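Thread: DNA polymerase-3 subunit delta, structure

OP (GT): Posting the sequence first so everyone is looking at the same thing. Length is 322 residues per the record. Can we get the structure tokens written out before standup tomorrow? I want them in the notebook alongside the other entries.
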Amino acid sequence: MLDSFYGNNLAKTTLVLGWKDGRLPHAVLLEGESGSGKKTFAKIVAAAAVCSGKDKPCGICRHCKKAGQGVHPDIMLIDGAQSSKNVNVDAIRDIRASANIKPNEAERKVYILADAQNMTVQAQNALLKVLEEPPKGVMFILTCDNHSRLLETIVSRVTMLRIENPPISICAQVLHTLAPEHSEQEYLMAAEVFEGNIGKAAASFHDEGFIKIIESSKKIAYAAVRGTEYDLLAELAEFENDKEGFAACLKRVKIVFMDVIKRKYGGKKTPLGQCELDNYISALQCRRIVDIIEEMLRMMEQNMGYPLASAWLCSQIKNALR
């Protein structure tokens, strides 16, 4: 079952060593961006916790099979992404009470709290009580996009594992199976734009916004090199109320300039980088723009608002081209 989860060898090795030594933690926190597979990995960890086989999770015992089908009575999934009511203080108190009841079939009972960052402070404090003194045979698996959104007292009582996106090449291969009706170029494009995030890349094929990102990225790159600062601001305005789309588009723009660099140094042409900018910009200027975009993305992760972000980006890019 672990082999079906791509990449993340460090996280998988950490858990396997714990299982072999009989030191399965009572609480695990899986941190990673949306679409990275945190919930999928949480279900694999839960299967390992109830598994009766030798190499956990074996994937063939009755507990693993039920876990894989999502019907194991000792694995409870509480999804904070579907509704905040699922992780409010009353819901957590109910979990705390039921945790004292013995498992139905397996040796352990597992609670998966997906998107735990949506818990209120009151709910987190209620959960803290059971994490401090966990009942025997109970395991908690939390997922979140950023552990800083949880109380420090919660984080200090869990084993935290970072879930990373797999390499872009692997993401593109997986997309063949998830979305077989698309072309090789589309798989690579989606994998590149979403930096190996399988969940987001697969969802993009059903999202008209993805087509908008591809088209807008071309216009933004051209405006950055050939247009005025006003032209660039006008193109960026398409994402004024779409922070996630803005970030995805900037990543695509970064790819455009990185491909220009590759071509200027004699690298192989990629289907993502065919544009008309090569004659108007140097490799050094491209490198500066790539660095500016990366810095912009870091600042956006710190919740920089669109007006300031777009103004800063335009100013920095135009300065880099002077």
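GT: Both are above now. Quick notes for whoever picks this up: The longest helix spans residues 243-264. Residues 270-274 have pLDDT under 50 and may be disordered.
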